[in-house]
Amino acid sequence: MTAGIEERPLGAAEEAEPKVGVVRRFLSALSRFATLHVFTSLTRRIVVLNLAALVVLVSGILLLNQFREGLIDARVSSLLIQGEIIAGAISASATADDDAINVDPDKLLALQTGQSLMPGDQAYEGTEFSINPEKVAPVLRRLISPTGTRARIYDRDGTLIIDSLHLDSGNQILAFDLPPPNDTGEKASWIETLWQRINLWLSSRDLPRYKELGGANGRGYSEVAAALAGQATRIVRINDQGELIVSVAVPIQRYRSVHGALLLSTQGGDIDNIVHAERLAIVRVFLVAAGVTILLSILLASTIAAPLRRLAEAADRVRVGVRSRPQIPDFSQRRDEIGHLSQALRDMTSALFVRIEAIESFAADVAHEIKNPLTSLRSAVETLPLARTDEARGRLMGVIQHDVRRLDRLISDISDASRLDAELARQDAAPVDLRQLLSTIISIVRDAHVDGPQIKLEFSSADRDAFFVLGHDGRLGQVFNNLIDNARSFCRPGGVVRVTARRRKDAVEIAIEDDGPGIRPDQFERIFERFYTDRADAGGAETFGQNSGLGLSISKQIVEAHKGRIWAENRTKPGAAGEPPVVLGARFAVRLPAA
Q1: Which terminal CB of the chain, N or C, has fewer other CB atoms within 10 Å?
Q2: pLDDT tens-digit profile of 133-188?
Q3: Percent of the chain clearing pLDDT 90 (strictly above)
């Protein structure tokens, strides 16, 4: 028994621990979700802006609600009909005093529509009717009780005879003093006071203020004065609590003679309670719509903020420079701005790392190429003091001068190649006339090398506008100058360098051909690599070190920056039967988009 009692709390504790852990994990996950999704700056802005539009809409509905005006008009019409019925019933129950007055029926029937009889008139010589409160009170109570309307009856002098607020269940009139105005008996709380002030500000507009007259003369109400003059009148007022009170006064007549006035008025808050209920319904709809709007805004923000946050984190990883190449999240499947941003960041990152790898490779190649002449120069300098003959010292001095010139060329070409990208990015592209550019370059080369190979220039079209491209004339001139110099250096004695320009639909193609030994098939792509030279058949050791190997690499870089293409091939002719084609020379082609 005791053991059983001791086991229960242990079992409850064991069951409570997993529940507490589940609750803690749920709250922790909810907190993380709120931190990452709900309380981000972008999410708050989306939620606030969407809610602001909804608040403006609901505020306009509450302030410009036509339901209130329609309700007031319907209430006025109802009170007018109700007043006419009650006034007719009261006039029918009025008593007559035969001792003082006689009536002339002929004069009474001669009255026109809208006319009435008052004491002293010639036709008012018949029976005088008076309102008996004891007979009118039961009728008034039966007619007023179901409607909840306040009814007051005034005689011809404006004296209050009956007030429905002071009728007891036995239909007897209770006589007691009316409470002073604005005395509610209890002090309202600050919330009620604030609501009354807001309601008063919303409802006041140009409505007159209602004032309780109590037992004072009823002519203080303009509608009662008009009713005693024989005209039914209505008016809408507002009390100190901001509640609407609709009053309708109708004359009490018998045989077209006004005996008094019936004043019907709504109780304070009757119409306002209905309007308040309507506004509460609108507020409930607003709360549901606000909840849906917040939920949809959070979902919308999650589709925007979460991808942007992931992109920002990936950009931070790129900026910090982690060892492995960071991957930018791929949202390119989204057909919106975020998808475009993701693709742009991915392309930018790829281009950045390609540029970094190119810089690293370029730095390694530069270090390697500079190290060779430096090693040779160092060996020559160290050996020079050991030379015993003038001939040996002369050979060493020649090596030193050769290596110095080689270093100078390397440094100049390396400097040119390193600032090429920045220079192309800073300058704006402009139309370049390749016809004029090629003519100028070849003219300068001919003047500088009179005894060199012959250079021929040919254009496939006579149209001067057919050879315009967008680019930088200085850099394009450098490309063609490098290719022409390269063709001249490989051309056989007595050979010809041919430069041909053709228009290819939306592109311009420039070909430079020589009569040299051509290019080995496995070198077509490699010759465009940095610091690569292959001149075994074009001068041997005499030309070693005369070229840095950067000319074709720089030319390719410039052409690709102009959205063009450069390639190399051989000029061939068919060989004898069973023999391979005969190589006539090399051809370098450059194709650029036409302007």
Answers
A1: N
A2: 777 788 788 888 777 788 888 888 888 888 888 775 554 554 545 555 554 445 55
A3: 5
- The token pair at 436 is 């004029």
Q: Which residue has the tokens 């903020």?
A: 305
Opening angle at CA 524, ends 523 and 526, nearest 5: 55
Distance between CA atoms of residues 308 and 185, nearest Å: 63
Q: Roughly how many angstroms between the first and final C-alpha of the chain, as a whole number?
A: 102
Are 396 and 384 contacting, i.e. CB atoms less than 8 angstroms apart? yes
Q: At which residue do the structure tokens 């009823």 appear?
A: 218
User: Is-contact 353 325, C-beta < 8 A?
Assistant: yes
CA distances in angstroms from 110 to 124, 231, 283, listed in the order given: 12, 20, 60
Query: Quick one: pLDDT at residue 37?
Result: 47
Distance CA 453, CA 459 (A): 20
- Closest C-alpha to 489, from 440, 435, 540: 540
Q: Which residues of 533-572 are buried (b: 16+ CB within 10 A; e: fewer)?
A: bebeeeeeeeeebebbbbbbbbbbbbbebbebebebebbe
The three-point CA angle 473-479-482 to 5° equals 135
How many CB atoms neighbour CB 248 within 10 A?
A: 26
**Residues in CB range of 272: below 8 A, 6 or more apart:** 199, 203, 242, 243, 244
Exposed, middle or buried, 244 (CB in 10 Å: 0-12/13-18/19+)? buried
**What pLDDT score was predicted for residue 509?**
92
Report the pLDDT averaged over residues 211-218: 82
3-state secondary structure of 185: coil
Give 113-169 as a DSSP string: TT--B-TT-TT--SPEEE--HHHHHHHHHHHHTTTT-EEEEEETT--EEEEGGGB-T
pLDDT digits (tens, 9 = 90+) for 389-434: 888 888 888 888 888 888 887 787 777 777 776 676 677 788 999 9
User: Across residues 76-93, what is the average pLDDT?
Assistant: 83
Number of H helices, E strands in the chain: 14, 14
Q: Is 334 exposed, middle or buried (0-12, 13-18, 19+ CB in 10 A)?
A: middle
* pTM for this entry: 0.47
Pairing type for strands 507-513 and 582-593 reads antiparallel
Please tell me what DSSP assigns to residue 507: E
Q: What would the pLDDT profile of 233-276 be if each residue is shown by its tens digit?
A: 888 887 777 778 888 999 988 777 888 888 888 877 777 777 77
CA distance 571 to 514: 9
Q: Any residues with CB less than 8 A from the CB of 510 and at least 6 apart, and which? A: 434, 438, 480, 499, 500, 501, 589, 590, 591, 592
Specify the pairing of strand 565-573 against strand 582-593: antiparallel
